Structures are given as C-alpha cells and as structure tokens.
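Schema walkthrough. Field components (list of strings):
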Amino acid sequence: MEGTLSLLGTGGGGGPSSGGSTTGSMSTVSMEDNLVLSSEVSSSYPDESELELGLGLNCGGGGGALKSKPAATPAPRVQYARILTAKDFPSLVAKSSSSSSSSSSSSVTKANTSVGTKRTADSFAPAPNAVSGQVVGWPPIRAQRMNCLVNQMKSPATEEFNSTGQKSKIRNGAANNANNGSEKNINNAKEIVHIKTSLFVKVNMDGIPIGRKVDLNAQSCYVTLAQTLEDMFYRPTTTAIGARRSSMEEHDQMIEATEPSKLLDGSSEFVLTYEDKEGDWMLVGDVPWGMFLSSVKRLRIMRTSEANGLAPRFQGRNGNQIKEKEREKLLNGESILLE
Amino acid sequence: MAHSFPGEVLEHVFSFIHSDQDRNAVSLVCKSWYEIERWCRRRIFVGNCYAVSPMIMIRRFPEVRSLELKGKPHFADYNLVPEGWGGYAYPWIAAMARAYPGLEEIRLKRMVVTDDTLELISRSFKNFKVLVLSSCEGFTTDGLAVIAANCRNLRELDLQESEVNDLSGHWLSHFPETCTSLVSLNIACLGSEVSSLALERLVARSPNLRTLRLNCAVPLERLPNLLRRAPQLVELGTGAYSAEVRPDVLSNLAGAFSGCTKLKGLSGFWDVVPAYLPAIYSICSGLTFLNLSYSNIQSPDLTMLVSHCHNLQRLWVLDYIEDSGLEALAGSCKDLQELRVFPSDPFDADPNVSLTEQGLVSVSEGCPKLQSVLYFCRQMSNAALVSIARNRPNLTRFRLCIIEPRSPDYLTREPLDTGFGAIVKHCKELLRLSLSGLLTDRVFEYIGTHAKKLEMLSVAFAGDSDLGLHHMLSGCESLRKLEIRDCPFGDKALLANAAKLETMRSLWMSSCFVSFGACKLLSQKMPRLNVEVIDERGPPDSRPESCPVEKLYIYRTVGGPRFDLPGFVWTDG
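Field assembly_structure (string):
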C-alpha cells in the first residue's frame, strides 16, 4: 500500500502525506486502479477504493471532476473523471466529523503549538485532493448553474473520456490567452458545445409513489447511473454512501461487478427504462451514453414483467456486442481503456 | 381620536404606505385602523406557504391584487429537500380564484406549479398582469401556452430559473396578435427553440417591453433583429453568444446594440465567442448590472469588458475573472455594490484558475459602496477576512463558500473564527451571512454577540457542540431564517431555545444530531410550530428515540398542521 503511494508521490499540493494509510482492503483489482485512487483520494476514506473498484471496471471517465494524473505505469488504465455521484462519496455525516471536530477544538484551544494545530487541521479537514463535490448539495450551487458548468466541461456527445482533455484545453486556453487571445478562445468555444439546460430527469419506480430526480450529467456512464438509482430507491438515505461503505467494511470485499448492473443486465425483478424525446419507452443501456443523454426525457424503474413490450437488448447490434465484451472484462476484473 | 377622520381619508393615507412592516404596524394601532387597513391592503407577501392558510389570508384581506408566496426551504436549491416534499401552488390559486377575481399579480418562489394551476390562473383572473415563477417546477410549456393565449393584459412573464418540462418552443406563438402589453419576458431557463419569427413579432408589437431574457437556443444571428425592434430595452439576456466569426455579423450586432441606449442590465452570454464581445462596448458605460456567470469568457476578455463598465453596480461572474480581473474591477468600477463570483469547476479540489482570497480583498479595498458579496474560492485566511471587514463595514450580505468543507486558514492552519468574527463585529448592518471553512464554537459566540441585525444565516460543516447552536439562537435578535447542515448540534440547544423558534420564520437542520425524541417534545410543547422530520429511512418509531433524524424543518405557523404531507415527512399530531 505504501509502496503504491510512493510510486506516484503525493498528488497535487497538500495531498495526504504518505503517513496516511489507505486502509481497508484493496482487493485484487488492477493496481492501476489503485494508483489512480491513491493519488487522488483522501487517506481518510479508505473504502472509497473498494467503491472505485466496482465502478472502475467498466466506465471510462465522465465529466472532468477529477484531474487525471499521469500514471507512473504505462499499463492501460481507466481514466477517472467523475463528477458527483452521491454514491461513492466519503461520508461527511456529522457523526463521523464531530468526533474529529471535538478533538480539534480541544487542540486548538490548548497550547496552539503549530504542530498541534497542523495535525488537527489535517486530521479532520478532508485531504485537499479529495473532491469536495462529493457531498450532496455541496458546494451550494443551484442545479441549473451546475448543469451549465458541467456542460461547459464536456461535450454531450460520445467523448466521456475526452472530457478531461477538453478541460485541460480550457486551462491551456486560459494560460495562453495573453498571447493568442480570441483565437484560442474561439477554438475552445467550438469545443464547448452548446449548453443544455436542466439534465435532471425524473425517476419513478413501480410500486413507489414518490418519484425522485437524478442529475444525468453527474453520472459518467450507465453503471454509475444504475448505482445511483439503486441507492436512491433500494437504500433511500442521504447517507446512502455510508450504508454501502459500512456494509463493505463488514464484508471486506470489492463490489461484485454484477451487483451494480442489476438494473442494467436484467437479472433483477426490475429493469431500468427511459422515455425518449419521441415518447417511446426504451431499455436503458442500448445506445452510447452521449446519445442517451440527448434523447432521454425521464426514467422509470419498471417491473420486468411489464417490460416485455420494450425493444429487446443484445440482439444483433454492434454496440451491444461491444457491451458484452466489456461486461466479460468486468467480471474478469480487467481494467480497460475504452476506445 | 380615531373617529375624527372618516374612513375614506384614512384609507387614502394608508394607500401611501406600502411596506408590509409599516402596514402591519398600522393595523395594530386600534380596531378601526385594523379594519380599514385590511380592506385596502392590496399586496400580500407570504414567506412560507405553510405558515398561514389561504383561508386565513382571504378572510382577513378581502381585496388583494398581488400575492407573493414562497414554498420550499432555501436548501431545496441544493437538492437537500426530497422530491415531493410539498409547496404546492394549486390550493392557493384555487382559493384565490373564488375570492379574488381581480387578482393581478402572482409571484411564486420554490413552489410546485402544475399546468392545471397555470390553466386556472389564466381562466380565473380577467385582469391578470404579472406571473413570476422563480425556481418553481412541475409545469410544462403547455401550461405556458395557456397563459400566453388567455391572459389578455399580460405584462410580465418571468420564469426565472424554474424547471420547466420543455415540450416545444411552440407555446410562444400562442400570444395573440392583440397582445401588446408585455413589459417583461424571461424565458432564459427554457431549452427549446422558440420560433424566431414569433418572437420578433411579439417584441415588435410590445412597445413597453423593458426586460427581455432569451434562452440559449436563440442564435446570435437573430439578436440584432430583436434589438432593433426593441431599442427601449432596459434589461437584456442574450441567447447563445457564439457564431462563426464574420465581420458583417459583428458590425450588425454592434450597430443593433448601439441603438439600445437605455440598456442597463445584460445577462445570458451562454457559450461566448470573445470576438463578439466588442459589439457591446458602445453600451457598456450605461450598464449597472452585468451577469456573465454562465459564460466561459477568460480573464483577459473579462477584464477588458469590465473595464468598459464604469457605472457597474452589480457584477455576477465566474472565477475565470481571477484575482487580476478583480483587481481591475476594483480600479474601474467605483460604484460596485454587489459582487458574485461563482466557481467554474466546483468539483476539483485543485484550483483551475488563479482566484484566491486576494481578489475579494482587492474589491473590498477599491469599491467603497460594496455591500453584497457571494464568493466561491478555495483558500481563505483570517487576515484577509479581517481586512475585508475593516475595509467594508457597510457590508449587508456576506456569503463566502470555501469549496472544501472545513478548510482552515491556509496560512496559519487555524480555524477561521477570527476572520468571520471580524466580519460580524465590523459590519453592524449585516443582514445575511453564509459561513464556510474550519469553524469552532467560538465563531458562533462572536455571531451571537455581534450580529444583531442578522436575518439569515447559513451554516455548514461547522462548530463543535450544542454551544454553537445556542449562541446563534440566543444571541441573534433579528434572526429569521437559520439553515444548518452537517454540524454537531443537537437536542440541548434546540430545546433550550424553543421559544426563539416562534420568532423566526424557519429553522432547517440536516445531518445534525437532533433526536426524534427531541422533535416530538418540541412539537408537543410548541403548538404554533410545525416540526417536520424529513427522513427517508422509514418511520422514526422504528428506531430508538435517541436516533438523530436526517433532516428537520421547523417553522412557525398559524395554519396548523399540513394536509399534504408526503410519506417521508413525520410530524406529531
């Protein structure tokens, strides 16, 4: 574990010192995934690694939430660029924080030696590399504004994994502005596709009277969407993350790849469907993610028994054959570089 | 004494009194003044739709022309209030349809508005003039079509930041040719394209149009046509501000803008191509409000633009402006009163732009009229906050969001208690405050001691113990709204200050330590409070009473318990 960390060094300014241990069991998923994790995730949230594993097995990056840091190894690795999925966020529930807060106040009000305060500050401030957007409703930005920002960061077309590239283009644009001014900006502007408004869509589940809303732009792929929805409806708590994390702490294992895809692969009693712009109900997962984003109006978690009339999946479409291969790789625990 | 003036005279005098507070004061003088006042009050503001019932309002005020109504708590903006919680407009509209046929204005904020509601509005009020739906949801463009078609004297249709199920842009074409009364139209939140022709004709036949906020689907090439048909515009929200760079488009646009000599406010700017920014230079000196918070313009272009706007009073911008841009702002915009800086990349812990606390300090130094601040940044220091407080004791609104929760002073690693303490100590007129960063109970002591005029306080990831909550509730005399998330505050402080809650509009606490038992107790002891436990984990009875609730929303009410509670909200009785 420590070895893994030192390979990459600490990521970015003020990252967790190598003294911080990424505890929790890192299972046998690819080391590359772990490297990405270790460089970016706070040491205070060890279980996120296990969450990561479940996710990382298939999805390429989403929007550019995390800066992807160049890996030390040349092996193919998944690009992580997650935006907020309430799912895999370190739980910042008051409970866990208060114990650290009280310890902090006592150290602060004491001698106030720089060592004491420093340790205090570090011990409960989430390590600066932890993505702060990983808490529901924080930072406090309205949904509409959020959608706008997210849309500025990535194109709604197929390049989920290119979005971090885009982001660095924007940054480079900013840096080079002094020289090239408008020209660079025009290029950037072209890359930044037209902003769509609200990508919150309603989700209803058969048998549950109260619907929810999910921000599709906060998802990077079908798997994260499915997991988010599962947490919303199967484990409906704002600390859903906590629930999943704690159950994993108990079982000390990685998320089975099949588990997150229950809604997607038809193995559960429910199946995830969506209504597209033409008013047709389709099974989720058949078209590329970007295409799905541009045509989805709302979601419904439908009883499998009722889903008979919908377009069958996995039948002679190239896209779906690729999906099958990916799914196999998921189960075998290989990391893949999409495209 | 009261009888020496005939009622009509008093009524005439009262007609000059507009503020709710003054009117409330008038109504308390004596019974006859109460009677006269209630018959001639025309505007009603209800800050919490569950604090009073439509019936009670109608009974007391029989001749209302304008209603402003707010529904969900503020934290609903950040997805903290589950879907289906409430805030339905329909019961209010239905009651008013019977009681106030002369109703002219409806302003709703954070409420659920259905197409049926809109249809009812369009049918029930013959002289309907103003519809403002701010951060509302639940309706579609079909509902808008009905409003457009049936409200013959419509002056204002403002959909500010509402979530509309946008079925098509066709609704705009439902404004009849005879509709020439439009003064304000805000469709910025809609996604679909509206017919350019219909829009241009509507604008052309609305000589009183002062505010026009387009949505991003209106292409830049159509903007000159619209501007030429509405040279009297005072507020404009552009659509997409990008097109292939062509000199003829640029000159056309610049010409159109130069004709709008009355423009004071600009917004929109989705998707900007900077080459087109010079088109607005000719009117920049007249601008008092500039909202660039949806545009990706980078610092040099931003700085250039802002330096043309010498009379700017309010600026909303993304952190692309950077410290350097803010410094330029401080140098060129001496009339600046309000600054909002939003984050362009809120979910990266590492900064993508060079915006720090220094930018805000510069503005606080250079802009003597600065009163209102909303600032997202990644680092802050006590020293900077103290500077800001000393520079600008005239601050009335200070909302600081340090993106990483519990971030300490980045220089000293200490909590930011001292800094925020300086803010409340120096800024004696502070009305609204949002805290962030690493904060102990000490900051709440400062707030309780000094923030005597504070009306709204937002707290997140702060404090050590109940003492923090106690300081706020016992010290802040003017407190109306308190919203707290993820803080270690619990039963003791809440119960000890129960009486205070009746003097406030509302208290929101989520992910704190308030137990269900305490909620029940509070609810029993305080019949004039609605204590809502919002908990999606199922019935609180199924857990020990000491178990903390997920979310708690407490508000004073004379309307009694709600009848429209969803399954995940638990109240006592």
